[in-house]
Amino acid sequence: MGKKTIRIKDIAEKAGVSTGTVDRVLHKRGRVSPIAEKKVQEVLKALNYQPNFIARALGANKNYNVAVLMPDPAQDGYWRAPEKGIALASSDFISHGISLDKYIYDQTNPVSFEQQANELLKKYYDGVIVAPLFFQQYLAFYKTCVERKIPAILFNTNIKEFPKLSFIGQDSYQCGRLAAHLLTYSSKLNKGKIVILHLEDDLETSAHLMRKEKGFRDYFDQQEMDQSIIALNFKSPLKDSLVNHLDSLFDSYRNIQAIFVSTSKAFEVAAYLEGVGLSEILLIGFDLLPENIKYLKTGAIDFIINQNAFKQGYKAVECFVDYLILKKEVKEIIYLPLDVITKENVSYFLPQS
Fold first, then answer.
1. DSSP string of 258-280?
2. How many CB atoms lie within 10 A of CB 60?
3. How many DSSP H helices and E strands does the chain contain?
4. Could you name the CATH architecture of 62-170+309-337?
5. What would be the CATH architecture of the domain defined by 8-51?
6. Where exactly are the structural domains of the chain?
7. How far apart are the C-alpha atoms of 175 and 170, rounded to whole Å?
8. Cα–Cα dist 284/269, whole Å
């Protein structure tokens, strides 16, 4: 059965007050006697009345401007997914009065973040959505947002030191534990070496990668598995330099049985392993990039952990709709599910034509 619309007139009749009194109670404006307010609140509770915030917001004809500050998807394919999520949410919620401006920065250059943040701050925004890859530059930006009372939603990378309206993304520690757990299922993993491979320009400021490594190591420690684990960082290498790095890795260490790539660039390692005939090495990485999917299907990548980058972008916009328009409370931490992807189930996680 359809739910009957509850009118202000119905509430007023049941409470024995005027419609004007009910309106003042619902919208928290004007003076109402404590006795009259109590009567109205009792009726609202009895009727389980829920105000139509969307209709109210649309009726108010108010627009909200939100800025997005994120890395360049043309520079790193990972960012195409959250960009698409943000774009779809912007389209879905345009009738609610939400509009978005994008500010794109070079994820290898902290000065680029600073420049784009300064451009953003030249305008007024009701909220900002940020992927804060640079700690120090974000700190300055954050302080200005606090001064101007601009709420911030972070995605992909959480900076726990600073309050925010919400963080949307993965639990990096659990990402590492999940990767370790998956590796232990394979009969290929014996007492050989495991390599944790970070492909990151500035590992010191990449707290989420350090959390992944800690979760990975903790899993083996807590299982009391005497496993040799080596952690290395190659700074966003070009193809030729990555080959040299990996050649050096295999020259330096014998009996490598598994590689855990902490970023979305597992495909670069997979290409190398296929090229030198080492595809039997277990390889696990992150995110459903087309390049990762290609090597997952060939078997060069054994597992992909999907961090739901598309949903991170979509959910960030949706949270501002909840906060600005529907006046709902937003959770400070929103962890998204971690999907385990193999060549057998990958097709179910791809867009259906």
1. EEEE-SS-HHHHHHHHHHTT-TT
2. 10
3. 13, 12
4. 3-Layer(aba) Sandwich (3.40)
5. Orthogonal Bundle (1.10)
6. 8-51, 62-170+309-337, 172-306
7. 7
8. 10
CATH 1.10.260.40 fits 172-306, yes or no: no
Q: pLDDT tens across 67-110, in order?
A: 999 999 999 889 999 999 999 999 888 878 889 999 999 988 99
Residues in the chain: 353
Burial of 197 (0-12, 13-18, 19+ CB in 10 A): buried
Look at the block and give the residue holding tokens 């953003």: 120
Measured CA to CA in angstroms, residue 325 lies from 27, 98, 312, 319 at distances of: 14, 9, 20, 10
Predicted pLDDT of residue 224: 77
For residues 300 and 280, is the Cβ–Cβ distance under 8 A?
no
Q: How far apart are CA 266 and CA 283, in angstroms?
A: 8
Average pLDDT estimate for 27-31: 71
Model-wide pTM > 0.90: no
Beta-bridge partner residues of 333 = 167
Looking from the CA of 279 toward its CB, the CA atoms found within 13 Å total 12
pLDDT per residue over 158-175, tens digit each?
A: 888 888 999 999 999 999
Residue 45's pLDDT band, with cuts at 50, 70 and 90, is: confident
Residue ranges in the chain assigned as alpha helix (H): 8-15, 19-27, 34-47, 53-60, 80-92, 110-120, 135-148, 172-184, 207-222, 239-252, 266-275, 290-298, 309-320
Give residue 328's Cα distance to chain centre.
20
Q: Give the 3-state secondary structure of residue 88.
A: helix
What mean pLDDT is predicted for residues 144-166? 93
Identical fold for domains 62-170+309-337 and 172-306, yes or no, is yes
